[in-house]
Write a structure and sequence with these properties.
heterodimer, A: mainly alpha, 8 helices, about 0% strand, globular, B: Glutaredoxin, 2 domains, eight-stranded mixed beta sheet, two-stranded antiparallel sheet, 10 strands
Chain lengths: ~190, ~200
C-alpha cells in the first residue's frame, strides 16, 4: 500500500471509531467499547506506524515501542478510566488520541521493526493477558464499571476468552500446520 | 543495551502513568476512586427539597444538627435496594437517637404512596427514618452528581446503580461512603466523628 492510502485508511478508522454516528453506538455497551472501538483506534494508528516504519531499520526501537503500546492499552483498560471516558468528553478525546497515537502507532512501528522472537513473545504475552482479563471479568461478582451492566462485563469476559482462543489457535496453526506444510511441500522446479 | 534501556524507560513511564491513574493501586474502579476522593475531601451536598413518605417537605439542610446517613434507592428495586433497606433497619436499631436516616429515591416515578410502601416494608418512621423523593429534575441530577451516584437503565424497566451508605456530618458534608453490608464501619466512623 502506498503512503497516502495507508495513512488515509488509518485516519479514516480513527474518525469512524471516535466520532458520530458510530462512536455513541460503540460506547453504549462495554464489549463494543473494548472489543470494537479500542481495536479500531489501535488499528488506525498501527496502519500509520507500519507505513512510517517502511524502509527504516531501527531494530532497537521495536521492544520499547511494543512495550509502550501495551502499557497505553493497559491504562485505558482500567475500569476507572473506562467510566471516566464515558462521563467526560475530554477524557474520551484523550483516550481516542492515546489509543491512536500512543498505542496504535508504536504498535505498528514496533511490529515492523521486531524480529520473529520478539513478535512471538509479544503474541504469547497478548494471549496470556487476554485470558487473564477474560477470567477477571467473569470471576469478579461485582460491577467493575459504574456506567455498564454486569451482563456487559460477563459478555466482555467471554469476548476476551474468545479472542484468546482465536489467537492461540492462529499461533498454533502457524507454528505447526504452516511449518509442516512448507517443509513437506515439493520444491518448485 | 540501547533497546534494553529504552524499554526500561518506557516501562517506567507506563508504570508511573498507571500508578497515577489508579492512585497508587488504590482506585482501579471509579467506585473506589469516588470513595477515596470523598474521604480525602468531604463535599457539601446541594440543599435539595425532599418529599417524604407522609407527603411532608423538608430541605436537606434541615438535617444540620446531627449526623445523617443517606442511601439512594428506588422503591420498586428487586435487588440491591432490599439490601440497603435491611442495612438501614440495622442502623435504625443501633445508631444514637439523634442520628437520622434518609432513604432517597432517585426514581421520579416514586410518589408518596410508593415511598410509603417502601417505608412500611422496613417500619421506617419519620423523623428518625424518612423515605423521600427529590423535588425537581435539576435538583435530583445535582444531588446524584455531587454524591457520585450513577444510575443506568437495567433494560427491564428498572435501574442499576452504585450502592452505598453515605455518611453526612453535622455540617452537611458528605464525609464517607460504605458498602451496604458495612454498617459496623459506618458506626465506627460515626463514633469517631462524635469524639
Amino acid at each position: 500500500m502506498r503512503a497516502e492510502p495507508c495513512i488515509a485508511a488509518g485516519v479514516a478508522l480513527v474518525v469512524l471509531a471516535a466520532l458520530p454516528p458510530l462512536a455513541p453506538w460503540l460506547q453504549s455497551r462495554l464489549p463494543l467499547v473494548v472489543l470494537g472501538q479500542y481495536p479500531l483506534l489501535v488499528l488506525g494508528g498501527a496502519l500509520i506506524g507500519l507505513r512510517l516504519a517502511r524502509g527504516r531499520r531501527a531494530g532497537w526501537t521495536a521492544a520499547p515501542a511494543l512495550a509502550g503500546a501495551a502499557l497505553a492499552m493497559a491504562f485505558w483498560l482500567v475500569p476507572r478510566w473506562i467510566d471516566a471516558a464515558l462521563a467526560d468528553p475530554t477524557v474520551g478525546l484523550a483516550r481516542a488520541l492515546c489509543l491512536w497515537l500512543l498505542a496504535g502507532v508504536p504498535l505498528g512501528w514496533g511490529w515492523a521493526q521486531a524480529g520473529p522472537v520478539l513478535r512471538g513473545f509479544a503474541l504469547a504475552n497478548a494471549a496470556s493477558m487476554l485470558a487473564v482479563m477474560g477470567w477477571l471479568q467473569l470471576a469478579i461478582p461485582a460491577r467493575l464499571c459504574n456506567a455498564y451492566l454486569l451482563s456487559d462485563q460477563r459478555l466482555l469476559g467471554i469476548g476476551f476468552l474468545a479472542a484468546t482462543a482465536a489467537l492461540v489457535l492462529s499461533l498454533s496453526a502457524r507454528a505447526f500446520v504452516g511449518r509442516a506444510t512448507r517443509r513437506n511441500a515439493p520444491a518448485r522446479a | 543495551m540501547r533497546a534494553a534501556l529504552a524499554t526500561l524507560a518506557v516501562a517506567c513511564c507506563g508504570a508511573a502513568a498507571l500508578w497515577w491513574g489508579t492512585e497508587g493501586g488504590q482506585a482501579l474502579t471509579s467506585e473506589a476512586a469516588r470513595r477515596l476522593d470523598i474521604a480525602r475531601a468531604p463535599r457539601a451536598l446541594p440543599d435539595v427539597v425532599l418529599h417524604d413518605q407522609n407527603g411532608a417537605l423538608t430541605h436537606l439542610s434541615d438535617y444540620r444538627a446531627a449526623p445523617v446517613v443517606l442511601e439512594f434507592v428506588y422503591t420498586t428495586c428487586p435487588d440491591i435496594c432490599l439490601a440497603l433497606g435491611t442495612a438501614f433497619e440495622r442502623l435504625d436499631a443501633a445508631l444514637p437517637r439523634d442520628a437520622r436516616l434518609i432513604s432517597i429515591s432517585f426514581d421520579p416515578a416514586d410518589d408518596t404512596a410508593r415511598l410509603g410502601d417502601f417505608a412500611d416494608r422496613y417500619d421506617a418512621t419519620a423523623p428518625r427514618w424518612r423515605v423521600a423523593g427529590i423535588k425537581g429534575d435539576a435538583a435530583r441530577a445535582a444531588l446524584l452528581d455531587r454524591a457520585g451516584v450513577v444510575v443506568i437503565p437495567d433494560g427491564f424497566g428498572g435501574f442499576v446503580h452504585n450502592a452505598g451508605l453515605y455518611l453526612v456530618d453535622a455540617q452537611g458534608r458528605l464525609t464517607a461512603v460504605f458498602d451496604p453490608e458495612d454498617t459496623r464501619g459506618l458506626r465506627a466512623a460515626l463514633a469517631d466523628d462524635a469524639r
